TrEMBL record:
InterPro entries (alphabetical): Flavodoxin/NO_synth (IPR008254), Flavodoxin_dom (IPR026816), Flavoprotein-like_sf (IPR029039), Protoporphyrinogen_IX_DH (IPR052200)
PROSITE patterns per UniProt: FLAVODOXIN_LIKE (PS50902)
Protein name, UniProt field: Flavodoxin family protein
Annotated SUPFAM superfamilies: Flavoproteins
Record Pfam families: Flavodoxin_5
Residue stretches making up the Flavodoxin-like domain: 4-147
Length: 151
């Protein structure tokens, strides 16, 4: 199963830690959204989208990329994010868009990521030391599960 992970991780590299774990399990090619050549997406069976959450949304480069993508039938996708509060609900912001492009969502993952943005900086940030070992273990399990369901 040829797998690509498209990501953005601009705050503390929190999401990149998750990208690397999932990428290793899936033996995926890993690329930042801004460097994706849209013409190459057809080569992959499974495409992951991972991002930190900024003002409730995936990074704008990921949103722009999805908007530009052609209809890609019979491809599977998975979605993951890190955020100060760590909720999966942030993934919903791109689920619908991906569906409109003919993509089937086969998995969602989220965890907390250290957030020192704005006023949180004064108190040393929230979600300190996240993602932690347990988060990365969860990410690994998530990826191993994907291997089973996305065959
Ligand atoms: C500009 C900015 C906006 C953010 N907005 C949110 C938000 O709306 N909700 C949230 O839970 N975390 C928010 N965060 C925290 C990040 O989602 C969190 O630190 C994430 O792990 C960053 O991932 P990264 O290090 O891969 O960029 C924000 C951080 C920044 C820098």
């Amino acid at each position: 199963m040829k797998t690509l992970i498209i990501y953005e991780s601009i705050h503390h590299g929190n999401t990149k830690k998750v990208v690397d774990i999932i990428g290793k399990v899936l033996k995926a090619k890993i690329i930042k959204a801004e460097n994706v050549n849209i013409g190459t997406l057809r080569e992959y069976d499974l495409i992951g989208f991972g991002s930190g959450i900024y003002y409730g949304k995936f990074h704008k480069n990921i949103n722009k990329l999805i908007d530009k993508m052609p209809i890609l039938l019979n491809k599977k996708v998975f979605i993951f994010s890190t955020s100060g509060i760590g909720k999966k609900k942030f993934n919903n912001s791109i689920v619908e868009k991906l569906k409109e492009h003919g993509l089937e969502n086969v998995g969602n993952f989220s965890c907390k990521g250290h957030n020192t943005y704005g006023p949180f900086k004064i108190i040393g940030g929230i979600a300190k030391n996240r993602p932690n070992e347990k988060d990365l273990e969860d990410a690994k399990n998530f990826a191993e599960n994907l291997l089973k369901i996305a065959k």
